[in-house]
Automatic annotation (TrEMBL):
One of its GO terms (molecular function) is nucleotide binding. This is NAD(P)-binding domain-containing protein. It comes from Artemisia annua. Residues 146-262 form the GFO/IDH/MocA-like oxidoreductase domain. Transmembrane segments: none annotated. Residues 8-127 form the Gfo/Idh/MocA-like oxidoreductase N-terminal domain. Belongs to the Gfo/Idh/MocA family. It comes from the Eukaryota. Pfam families: GFO_IDH_MocA (PF01408), GFO_IDH_MocA_C3 (PF22725).
Length: 361
C-alpha cells in the first residue's frame, strides 16, 4: 500500500456523470486519492459521496472555490460544462492546482491557450480526460503504425464516434444547450475522432478541413451530427470522420498504410476493462485467381492490469508527484496534444458555420 504522503490528493469540481467514473479511477490508481468533492450545493456533493461509497474522511464542499482554497488539494479534476472550463481551469492553475480537464478542453483554441498559459506560468501539469491515450493497446498500435516494413506510410484514416441517446437527452442534456456546451456532438464525440486521426499522423495538422453539408443541428443551433474530410498536401494523406448523437454506438478507427492496415472497433471504451483487441493485416495480396488472400487478418489482444481511466490518473499523478518533488517540470506534450485537437475542432466548426467551405490550416 502506498504511503499516504506520496498520494496525489484530488479535488473534484462538480458531480457530473463522468465524475463517477473518474472518481472510481482515482480510487483504483495506486498513487492518488479522492480528497475533496464539491458541487454548487453541499447537499448534492454529499449525495455524490454517498452514491459512490466514498470514505467519511473525504472533504465535502458546497462550492468550487473552497476546493481551490484547500491547501491539501494537489490537483483538480474539472468535469464542468465546456463553457465553464476557462474560468475554473485558470483559477485552479492560479491556485497552483494541477489540472485534469474534461474534454473538449474549451470552446475555442483562444480559451485553451489562456488555460495552458496559466498552467505553464504557475508550473502545474495540464492533461485532458481522453482516456484511450493511456491504454497499453494504444502504444502497441503505434508501434505497428511506425514500422516501415509492416505498415509503411499512412494513406487514409477513418474514424467514427456516435450514439443514440433517449429522447430526454435532447431536451435536458447540457451537450444540447448552446449556452453550456455549444460544440455538441462535435465537441463530445468528434473530439475522439479528431484525436485518433491526429495521433495517426503524429499530430501534424491537416492542410485542409472541410465539413460536409449533411451536418445536422438542433433548434439551439448545436451540432448533433456531422461528417468531415481532412487532407495533408505534403503526404497526400486523407482522413474522414463521422460524429453523431443520432446513430448507433460506434467507436471506430481504421488506418490504411502502403504496406499494412489496422482497425479498432472499441477505441474510446474497450469492450472489456482488462483486455482490448486490435486487428491488423500486413503485406497482404490476393491468392491465385483472386480466390482468397495470401494472409488473414490477425487479432492482437492487449491486456491491462488497471482500467484505462485509472492508467490515465496514474500517469497524471506520477507527473504531479515528480513536479512536487522537483525532479521534473510539467510535461507540455499533453497540452500540445489537446491544442492540436482544439485547433482542428475549431476549423471544423468554422467550416460548418461558413457554409461548409474548406478551411486552410
Amino acid at each position: 500500500m502506498a504511503d499516504e504522503k506520496t498520494l496525489v490528493r484530488f479535488g473534484i469540481l462538480g458531480c457530473a456523470e463522468i465524475a463517477r467514473k473518474v472518481c472510481r479511477a482515482i480510487t483504483l490508481s495506486p498513487n492518488s486519492t479522492v480528497y475533496a468533492i464539491s458541487s454548487r450545493t453541499i447537499e448534492k456533493a454529499k449525495q455524490f459521496a454517498t452514491n459512490n461509497n466514498l470514505p467519511e474522511l473525504v472533504t465535502i464542499y458546497g462550492s468550487y472555490e473552497e476546493v481551490l482554497d484547500d491547501p491539501y488539494v494537489d490537483a483538480v479534476y474539472v468535469p464542468l460544462p465546456t463553457s465553464l472550463h476557462l474560468k475554473w481551469a485558470v483559477m485552479a492553475a492560479n491556485k497552483r492546482k494541477h489540472v485534469l480537464l474534461e474534454k473538449p478542453t474549451a470552446l475555442n483554441v483562444g480559451e485553451l491557450d489562456q488555460i495552458l498559459e496559466a498552467c505553464e506560468s504557475n508550473g502545474v501539469q495540464f492533461m485532458d480526460g481522453s482516456m484511450w491515450y493511456h491504454h497499453p493497446r494504444t502504444a502497441r498500435m503505434k508501434e505497428f503504425l511506425m514500422d516501415p516494413n509492416l505498415f509503411g506510410e499512412v494513406k487514409t484514416i477513418y474514424s467514427s464516434s456516435s450514439f443514440l441517446p433517449p429522447p430526454e437527452f435532447f431536451e435536458n442534456n447540457i451537450r444540447t444547450k448552446a449556452d453550456l456546451d455549444s460544440l455538441g456532438a462535435l465537441g463530445d464525440a468528434g473530439w475522439y475522432c479528431i484525436g485518433a486521426i491526429l495521433w495517426s499522423m503524429n499530430y501534424k495538422l491537416p492542410t485542409t478541413v472541410t465539413a460536409l453539408p449533411a451536418t445536422i443541428r438542433n433548434t439551439n443551433g448545436v451540432i448533433m451530427s456531422t461528417t468531415v474530410a481532412f487532407y495533408w498536401e505534403q503526404e497526400g494523406t486523407t482522413a474522414t470522420f463521422y460524429c453523431s448523437f443520432l446513430s448507433h454506438e460506434t467507436m471506430d478507427v481504421s488506418v490504411l498504410g502502403s504496406k499494412g492496415s489496422f482497425h479498432v472497433e472499441d477505441l474510446i471504451i474497450p469492450y472489456e476493462e482488462t483486455s482490448a483487441p486490435y486487428y491488423f493485416t500486413s503485406c497482404a495480396s490476393f491468392a491465385d485467381l483472386h480466390l482468397g488472400w495470401s494472409v488473414a487478418e490477425q487479432e492482437v489482444q492487449v491486456h491491462n492490469e488497471l482500467p484505462q481511466e485509472a492508467l490515465m490518473i496514474q500517469e497524471f499523478s506520477r507527473l504531479v508527484q515528480e513536479i512536487k518533488d522537483s525532479t521534473i517540470t510539467p510535461d507540455r506534450r499533453w497540452g500540445g496534444i489537446s491544442r492540436a485537437s482544439q485547433v482542428v475542432l475549431d476549423a471544423v466548426k468554422s467550416s460548418v458555420d461558413n457554409g461548409f467551405k474548406t478551411v486552410y490550416l
